[in-house]
Design goal:
- With about 90 residues, the protein is mostly helical.
- The protein is about 45% helix and about 5% strand.
- It has three helices and two strands, in the order ααββα.
- A two-stranded antiparallel sheet has the order 1-2.
- The model has no long low-confidence stretch (mean pLDDT about 90).
Length: about 90
């Protein structure tokens, strides 16, 4: 298992993005690129951004509205909503 882990972690994000775009195009699936900046510090409930929203690696707790969730789940929700917004803009009538 270790050789596979070394191989996977040696990939650059650019190369991984290229693989994803290539495979998606083959299947007719759109790829939306989103800016991940501050997605781990932004509240997925109210949108408030603050470094203090992340008291530790696993925890997200909004200092504005009090929303709390696992930090990775909160960040994933933010990235997903940015993807939906990007899709809406790119496919506006």
């Amino acid at each position: 298992m270790k050789p596979q882990r070394v191989t996977l972690h040696a990939w650059s994000f650019h190369q991984l993005g290229g693989f994803i775009a290539y495979k998606a195009a083959r299947r007719g699936v759109a790829v939306i690129h989103v800016d991940p900046a501050y997605s781990s510090q932004q509240c997925s409930a109210c949108g408030h951004v603050d470094k203090k929203n992340r008291p530790d690696r696993e925890t997200f707790s909004c200092t504005s509205c009090g929303f709390a969730e696992h930090a990775d789940v909160n960040a994933a929700r933010n990235i997903a909503s940015r993807g939906v917004a990007g899709w809406a803009v790119s496919h506006a009538a």
